[in-house]
Amino acid sequence: MSERIYLLPVWIRAWHWCNAVLILTLIVTGASLHFSDPNLPLLEFSRAASVHNVAGVALASLYGLFVVANIVSGNWWQYVPKPPGIGHRCMVQARYYAYGIFRGESHPYPPTREANFNALQALVYWFVMYILVPTVVATGLVFMNPEIAPERLFGLDGLLPVAVLHYLSGTIITLFVVAHIYLGTTGVTVTSLFKMMITGWHEH
Amino acid sequence: MTVLKEFLPKIWLLLAVFLVVSPAWAQGDAKSINPELLEKIRKSNAECFACHSEAGLKNPPLPGLDLAKLRETIRDDEVFKNSNHGKMECRQCHGQGYQAYPHAVGSKQLISPCEQCHAVQVMKAEMQFDNSVHAKNLKDKFTCSTCHDPHVALAAAKLGDPRKAAAQDNHMCLECHNSDLTFAKYAPADKKRPNIDKIHAWLPNTRLHWDAVRCVDCHTPVAKTLSHEIANKDKAERNCVTCHSTNTALATRLYRHVAKTEANTYGFANSALLNSIYVVGATRHPLLDWAMVGLVAATVAGVLGHGLVRIILAWRRNRSGR
């Protein structure tokens, strides 16, 4: 029988699923807006715009709560990639995904209460939560209030760099989401990590 | 035949106007005007603006003027000078009855109609106007100048910046549609002015739209470059992708003057619009789009491939009992 530890308090699980719903909504509506085509409508444009705006403001608020809760609970420490030997641990983890996982090897760094994330996870999550999400949220808020953007930049509408940054960061988050959902199937069973995100209990 | 009968008088009028007024038309052409004539016009107009301006109202140059009446007829000298008609003499339209003060009785009735110079445009506009919501409800109360103030209007091509054209043209509509007082002057007695924000609540970022596009860009048939066939809310354009797509109608309508200068700046599609506005769905970079879509597709393919290899190898391990 596998061992299990209680890893994720309820607030992290609730935040995670709210984040997931909002980000998926924003990806679908965002893609529909950016790639709008009269011959290939994904969602009706004005509906997509309204939903994108509401979900965007909700994500911005949720990110604010996440930052506060992270500080108060000390959870922020989990996201900090910790030397020494971080490079080596990342290599070991990457080798596992590229090779060991196919041979049925065990996870090289299973999560503990002290370290929820392996080194590669910590690096990627740190980049996503402290660089990409703030970027997409900040540019999104400027997009909603374009009067904040510079009027002109390099002779063009000042909203252009904001829009491009929003698009790039949103796309990289989409890449993360695809990989994140897939890596969710790499627990002891295909569904165990998804169950962990619901119950809080991690199975080794 | 009925159509021909309807338009025959207009065609005769058009021909007659061409023969009679061509010199007057020529005088209004800014390119052909010589400096001496312009100076003469300016001097003549200065006499009018001596009274019919804010300054004239504050310090009336003549005794006994009816200031309340004068207030209704004041114009901005500078705005007029820069307008389409700015190089024309006031009396060109207002007539010789205004040569002296007090102005001759009945002079107002002798003011030249717009078609005296703009015969072709007026005929075209009238045909479109006849199908508009304004003709349906208010035909008798509408003239060109109900919307187009000849002392102010400047062609979009001359304004340059489409935002300025949007501000000028939307002002015409909002003068009535955003004012209970003015609306009541034209609308039927039982018609209450709808709140302009409420009826556009479905449109995201409504006010931003009004800064960047004209009311008529949605409230006239999209297939036409420019039209006086103003449509009500039921017939107005509601399909956002008409503008918010790479094949944007903005390039053939309000932004058509700047679209001529399309220079493919930094590789963006519709980059000519970018000098004024970023339009979601229209302002796109084909290479960047390919790169982003390619990255997402590669990631999806990567995880699917990874998963497939995992499944196959796990199945083989299970079969061999390891």
Could you describe the 3D structure shown?
The complex is a heterodimer of chains A (204) and B (322). With 204 residues, chain A is mostly helical. Chain A has six helices and four strands, in the order E-H-H-H-H-E-E-H-H-E. Chain A has a single domain, classed as Fumarate Reductase Cytochrome B subunit (Up-down Bundle). In chain A, strands 1-4 form a two-stranded antiparallel ribbon. A two-stranded antiparallel sheet of chain A has the order 2-3. The model of chain A has no long low-confidence stretch (mean pLDDT 92). Chain B is mainly alpha-helical. Chain B contains 17 helices and no strands. The longest helix of chain B is centred in the last third of the chain and has 34 residues. Chain B is elongated. Classes of the chains: A mainly alpha (204), B mainly alpha (322).
- Could you spell the SSE succession of chain A in H and E letters? EHHHHEEHHE
Which homologous superfamily in CATH is the superfamily of chain A?
A: Transmembrane di-heme cytochromes, Chain C
The percentage helix of chain B is: 40-55%
Low-pLDDT sequence parts of chain B: 13-30
What value does the Rg of chain B take, in angstroms?
28 Å
Uncertain runs of chain A are none
Structural class of chain A: mainly alpha
Whole-Å distance between the termini of chain A? 10 Å
Any idea of the CATH class of chain A? Mainly Alpha
Write the H/E string of chain B, N to C: HHHHHHHHHHHHHHHHH
Arrangement of strands in the largest sheet of chain A: 1-4
The number of helical segments of chain B is 17
| Integer average pLDDT of chain B | 84
- Mean pLDDT of chain A equals 92
The total of helices of chain A stands at: 6
Number of domains of chain A: 1
Query: Gap between N and C termini of chain B, in Å?
Result: 92 Å
Looking at the overall shape, the CATH architecture of chain A is Up-down Bundle
Keywords (chain A): Cell membrane, Electron transport, Heme, Iron, Membrane, Metal-binding, Transmembrane, Transmembrane helix, Transport
InterPro entries (chain A): Cyt_b561_bac/Ni-Hgenase, Di-haem_cyt_TM, Hydrogenase_cytochrome, Ni-dep_Hydgase_cyt-B
Subcellular location (chain A): Cell membrane
Pfam family, one (chain A): Ni_hydr_CYTB
